[in-house]
Write a structure and sequence with these properties.
Structural class of chain B: alpha+beta
Distance between the termini of chain A: 41 Å
Distance between the termini of chain B: 48 Å
Order of helices and strands of chain B: HHEEEEEEEEEH
Helix content of chain B: 25-40%
Largest sheet of chain A: none
Shape of chain B: flat
Radius of gyration of chain A: 23 Å
Mean pLDDT of chain B: 85
Oligomer: heterodimer
């Protein structure tokens, strides 16, 4: 095969084909990255619309807007769409665009599988979302799908399971592709410890994906056979145990939350040095911290289920193991702060989102530590405190990092500089409203308001009112982001941008022309130290 | 390594982890046994001989046992304890009675699954006879008195003064009958 490839070396086209074929048949990492990112943006607004329904119902006590069962469908679908449709595909899209350019590779290692990984997703989500139109409605038992509740809905459940299987296939293939690319396609001289941190965090994330998505697939398969084929994995009447599902689910679920945050760590570690005009502080410790977090993520799952009944020794083990995660995470936060320390900082929009990430993600980290304390968790469990916690780490954590990445690399992708004025407006409105949205939920949770309910006691009315107002404002604010992205993508090019769009930016992706041509690094680049690892090759 | 090799290794890892998800079902039991951290132990059945060796009639310690009952949503049965609260002496065999009635016009087979709260008490809750050890069949409209004979192990921690014994009856269709006797 290699000899024939050598003969026909110039048979691939240098310009993309025109029309829909370009996107449907694409094997180009940049096109597929774009598809992933646009899909993620669409799902962000679909999931966001569901959040608006939730906040509208919770605007006041009592039932005003939707039926309780539909409310439950909204909370369940909001989570599934945002996790599997918005955050994860956004990171995979960024990986597709950036990893080949960052390691000096011409494309992803497995371009056809790459096409397949993406094109599974629209079908998976069409199937998932179609359940809302079915007689029995969408899944309403929470995104964690705990039996027996999740098995008591209608037959649309089978569609949900199959959609999750498809998403799993897509993620696993995407992850394998990323690992093979990083292992085999690095430019000569790009050894592992010269890779940008975004590549490192994605390498580790990809391993997490390969290891835990199959466990989720197994768990939902057991649900499926319990429901339709008479097995009793989780059915007490048949000798099974519903708590077993929680153990298997969270064995997937906890690594999953790091799948949604490790690439964010990588993004922030790329952006901060650029706008501080200083190398990243503690590059090697960042790599080790990421690997430690990934390892620890496999041994802390039961902290999601302290209240189901566990031996005291088990609770203590999971409590301490969970708290140990604060150590590598703290290493990262301190490294970011040290990177900023005495840097020549400027505050362009990507930098604002990155700093917003560092501060607000850390708040989410602290509330996570509070939840790790077993005796306190019995009070916090399944309350709005948990909701506030994971929205701080996922919205002001993962989503902020994705926004930061979009602003940072948008000029490289499109050749257009976004409007800094609008970008800053987007950042400040988002940051003010997201705190009005989620901060009061801490107080609601401490006061005992349970999550996943459409109605609540009147003493929670005030904070819910604030939260809903913040929610509507945050949702509207994201339309600014939509406008900025669409204008940069489809607007007329008004100025020529240099290869190195940002003055302090390091890394191979800034050595290719702007906008990045369809094919880059067809010949491996010559590595120069000043292009790499933010200028700090000695670490 | 070639692309193919890396793909094969990672694909193998993914397939292996799929299997591991299923392996967790028996593995959790193994872990609980190896680490000795099992909180519940099946249906709490002990032999008469074991119960006799546990018995210490001399001890004058009384514990309230709260009887709780429920039936699965679709099971057309009524099921309730004759007495909601029973005072028993630890180390002495006691009996409680439940009444079950089949409201349907056809015979129905049900299976009761017991559960003890607080969870720490469950290993001290020994049953020598229980309607939950076997499947129960009620003919159309039939009522039946269902006994459970039990003893609280004198080793029951001192701070436990009330123990709840809860039963939930599940209807048995053809699919699930085969699996139940394993517990």
């Amino acid at each position: 095969m290699s000899s024939t490839a050598a003969v026909h070396q110039d048979d691939h086209h240098h310009e993309p084909v025109r029309g829909w074929r370009r996107w449907v048949f694409s094997t180009n990492h940049k096109d597929i990255g774009t598809l992933y990112l646009l899909f993620s943006l669409a799902m962000f607004f679909v999931g966001g619309a569901m959040a608006m329904v939730i906040r509208a119902e919770l605007f006041q006590p009592g039932l005003q807007v939707v039926e309780p069962d539909f409310f439950n469908q909204m909370t369940t679908m909001h989570a599934l769409v945002m996790i599997f449709g918005a955050v994860m595909p956004a990171f995979v899209g960024l990986a597709n665009w950036l990893i080949p350019m960052m390691v000096g590779a011409p494309d992803m290692a497995l371009p056809r599988m790459n096409n397949w990984s993406f094109w599974i997703l629209p079908f998976a989500f069409a199937m998932l979302l179609s359940t809302l139109l079915m007689d029995s409605g969408g899944p309403a038992g929470g995104w964690t799908l705990y039996p027996p509740l999740s098995l008591q809905g209608g037959n649309s459940f089978a569609f949900v399971i199959f959609a999750i299987h498809l998403m799993g296939f897509s993620s696993i293939m995407g992850a394998i592709n990323i690992i093979v690319t990083i292992f085999n396609l690095r430019a000569p001289g790009m050894n592992l410890l010269r890779m940008p941190l975004f590549v490192w965090t994605w390498l580790i994330t990809a391993f997490l994906l390969v290891m835990v998505m199959p466990v989720l697939a197994g768990a939902v398969t057991m649900l499926l056979t319990d429901r339709y084929f008479g097995t009793s994995f989780f059915n007490a009447a048949g000798g099974g145990d519903p708590v077993m599902f929680q153990h298997i689910f969270w064995f997937f679920g906890h690594p999953e939350v790091y799948i949604m945050i490790l690439p964010a760590f990588g993004i922030v570690s790329e952006i901060l040095p650029t706008f501080c005009r200083k190398p990243l502080f503690g590059y090697v410790s960042m790599v080790y911290a990421t690997a430690s977090i990934a390892f620890l993520s496999f041994i802390v799952w039961a902290h999601h289920m302290f209240t189901v009944g566990m031996p005291l020794g088990g609770e203590l083990f999971f409590m301490y193991a969970t708290m140990v995660i604060a150590v590598p995470t703290g290493v990262k936060v301190f490294n970011w702060v040290a990177t900023m320390w005495k840097g020549s900082m400027t505050f362009e929009t990507p930098m604002l989102f990155a700093i917003g990430f560092v501060i607000l993600f850390t708040i989410g980290g602290f509330s996570g530590l509070m939840l790790a304390i077993v005796p306190a968790d019995f009070q916090y469990h399944d309350t709005y405190f948990v909701v506030a916690h994971f929205h701080y780490v996922l919205v002001t954590g993962a989503v902020y990092s994705i926004m930061a990445a979009a602003y940072y690399w948008l000029p490289k992708w499109t050749g257009n500089m976004y409007s800094e004025k609008l970008g800053k407006l987007h950042f400040w409105l988002s940051t003010i409203t997201v705190n009005i949205l989620f901060f009061p939920q801490h107080f609601l949770g401490l006061a005992g308001m349970p999550r996943r309910i459409p109605d609540y006691s009147v003493e929670f009315a005030e904070f819910n009112l604030w939260s809903s107002i913040g929610g509507f404002a945050f949702g509207l604010t994201q339309l600014i982001f939509l406008y900025i992205v669409l204008k940069a993508s489809f607007g007329k090019r008004t100025q020529e941008l240099p290869d190195r769009v940002w003055e302090g930016a390091k890394g191979l992706e800034w050595t290719v022309p702007t906008p990045a041509p369809h094919h880059t690094f067809e010949q491996p680049p010559e590595l120069r130290d000043e292009d790499l690892a933010h200028g700090d090759v000695a670490h | 390594m070639s692309h193919g090799k890396v793909i094969a290794l990672l694909g193998g890892l993914a397939v292996g982890m799929f299997g591991f998800g299923f392996a967790m079902v028996p593995l959790y039991n193994v872990f609980c046994d190896v680490l000795g951290i099992r909180l519940e132990d099946g249906n709490g059945r002990v032999s008469d001989a074991d119960a006799a060796s546990m018995a210490t009639p001399a001890e004058d310690r009384w514990v309230t046992v709260h009887m709780d009952s429920s039936v699965e949503q679709h099971l057309p049965w009524e099921f309730a304890p004759q007495a909601k609260f029973v005072k028993v002496r630890v180390g002495e065999l006691a009996e409680a009675l439940f009444d079950a009635e089949n409201l349907a016009d056809h015979p129905v087979v049900g299976r009761a699954v017991p559960s003890v709260a607080p969870a720490e008490a469950s290993i001290y809750f020994a049953k020598t006879e229980c309607f939950c050890f076997t499947m129960q069949e009620l003919k159309a409209g039939e009522t039946k008195e269902m006994p459970v004979k039990f003893m609280l192990d004198p080793a029951l921690p001192d701070d436990i003064e009330v123990v709840t014994l809860s039963y939930r009856f599940y209807g048995m269709d053809n699919n699930t009958t085969a699996a139940v006797d394993g517990s």
